[in-house]
Design brief:
GO terms for molecular function: amino acid transmembrane transporter activity. With about 210 residues, this protein is mainly alpha-helical. The protein has one domain (about 25-205). About 80% of the residues lie in helices and about 0% in strands. The chain is built from ten helices and no strands.
Length: about 210
């Protein structure tokens, strides 16, 4: 198991990387703006679970193989980017229906939102590259089984990311509550959230593998 000093050092490094707005934050903001606080928090939970799947893959060596292979990494990269673009386009096309839902205070389909976020988290190439490049640096053969150490570090990363991204979700969702008083404003806000997801998909499409 990693030593307390290693855990604290890793937590500090992870926190610095997480609080800087990146793909996860932009995804959370896009979902929260388009669908509200509950959907935003649900998206954070799903995205975190998906990233933990990447931790398991890296710990077992699969992630390293994907990151080392141009073909495999490209498949994961474009699959995640295409899915984000799909979600963004769908959000824009359904903005009028979402405006009606917001003004009627109808519940969002959280189960579906959670599943979508899991896919986004698991196919995020930047998260995969980070885990492959950074996690092994904090693992030591003298501290026990390396896969176990990587798993613990990955869980710590996921916990910090969930707390940080949840704050963004609450802030964006709260702002949306004010916009929801007007169907026209919520249409514009939903379209903005969709555009952010499309832009994020474009950014991820140009992600490079860890070297």
């Amino acid at each position: 198991m990693p030593s307390p000093t290693t855990l604290l050092t890793f937590a500090a490094a992870a926190f610095v990387l997480i609080v800087i707005p990146g793909p996860s934050v932009l995804f959370t903001l896009g979902r929260s703006i388009a669908l509200g606080r509950a959907a935003g928090i649900t998206s954070v939970a799903g995205n975190t679970l998906g990233s933990l799947g990447l931790v398991a893959a890296v710990a077992l060596g699969v992630g390293a193989l994907v990151a080392a292979s141009d073909v495999a990494f490209t498949i994961v990269k474009f699959a995640g980017a295409a899915y984000l673009v799909y979600l963004g386009v769908r959000t824009i096309l359904q903005r009028k229906a979402k405006a009606a839902v917001a003004t009627d205070a109808s519940p969002a389909p959280l189960r579906r939102i959670f599943g979508q976020a899991v896919i986004v988290g698991f196919t995020n190439p930047k998260t995969l590259a980070f885990f492959v490049a950074v996690l092994p640096q904090f693992a030591s053969p003298d501290a026990g089984p390396v896969p176990l150490q990587l798993g613990i570090l990955g869980l710590l990363f996921g916990l910090i990311a969930f707390c940080s991204d949840s704050v963004w979700a609450l802030i964006a969702g709260s702002a949306r509550d004010w916009f929801a008083r007007s169907p026209r404003r919520i249409e514009t806000l939903s379209a903005t959230g969709g555009a952010m997801m499309i832009a994020l998909g474009g950014v991820l499409a140009f992600a490079r593998r860890a070297t």
